[in-house]
Design brief:
alpha+beta, Rossmann fold, Tumour Suppressor Smad4, 9-stranded antiparallel sheet, 4-stranded parallel sheet, 11 helices, 13 strands
Length: about 290
């Protein structure tokens, strides 16, 4: 089957030509039939949905979780297969795939949120504010490995809580939260192990609810999340659900696979086996 590599020059900038050269070299080694689509502008990328509506290709995102999300939303409902090569600042979706999937094509779950879809994690609260803060996430003066952590420190010092009404499993919780996370896979925020028992093919989405926390408790939750220690905190609750509704008195920005989504009402539903995903760890390692 033919691979189509999606290369966004508006994101990669001066790295684009080097990346394309590397793609050609590794694809030749793996004897792939392929083409490379270079999107010069965001507008070019937005035209993709029509271009691949009636094709049967392996559409491959090159970049981080946000790039995977954009391609997912372009091809969901078509016969195309989603694939990706990690080349971003976080690559959290890759971490879950590496832990849970063998090389090959898999039928995996996706999650619908309002009129969009995500495959990794959606967050609402301090985590969303950190992920949406471009001052840190895309700051060239901060090393890539430290950008998320820099945002964590800033928002830890300035964040209080957000009032949300969360409905799930015939239960309603209406109060101040530090964060709410809906997970289809295990990691977010450059290696934070938010949902360690998530699988992308079990028909379940995990829901994490963290109560309003004082600074000491918030620090404990954040620091322990790298090793999933946050789940031992009595202020943190983890459950699973098929449908979740989140409401707020005022619109705010959630973060969906690294992309912002502004709303005051979020309808979230599981779509079992909603996309075919090709995962090739060996190709990704060789590309790196």
């Amino acid at each position: 089957m033919k691979y189509v590599y999606i290369v966004n020059r508006f994101n990669l900038k001066e790295k684009t030509d080097e990346l394309i050269s590397r793609l050609k070299t590794v694809s030749k080694e793996f004897k792939r039939d392929y083409e490379i689509r270079v999107n010069e502008t965001v507008e070019d990328a937005l035209k993709m949905k029509e271009d691949y509506r009636n094709t049967e290709y392996i559409i491959t995102a090159i970049g981080g979780d946000g790039s995977v999300n954009l391609v997912l939303n372009d091809i969901v409902g078509t016969k195309n297969i989603l694939s990706f090569i990690p080349y971003g600042t976080g690559n959290d979706f890759y971490r879950t795939c590496e832990e849970t999937l063998e090389d090959g094509i898999h039928d995996v779950d996706i999650i619908r949120i309002n009129d969009s879809y995500f495959i990794n994690v959606a967050c609402f609260g301090i985590d969303a504010d950190i992920a949406n803060d471009e001052h840190y996430i895309h700051n060239r003066f901060i090393p890539k490995s430290m950008r998320y952590n820099a945002g964590v420190v800033h928002h830890f010092l300035t964040y209080s809580s957000r009032k949300m009404k969360v409905e799930f499993n015939d239960e309603t919780v209406d109060k101040q939260f530090t964060t709410v996370v809906v997970a289809n896979s295990r990691y977010f925020g450059n290696g934070y192990r938010v949902s360690p028992l998530s699988y992308m093919d079990d028909g379940k989405m995990e829901l994490l609810l963290a109560d309003k926390l004082n600074k000491a408790s918030m620090a404990n939750v954040i620091l322990s999340m790298k090793n999933a220690g946050h789940l031992k905190n009595p202020a943190v609750r983890m459950t699973s659900a098929d449908k979740i509704t989140i409401n707020s008195d005022i619109p705010f920005k959630a973060n969906i696979d690294g992309e912002p989504l502004l709303a005051d009402h979020f309808e979230i539903t599981m779509v079992p086996k909603g996309i075919r995903l090709e995962f090739n760890k060996e190709f990704a390692k060789r590309f790196k």
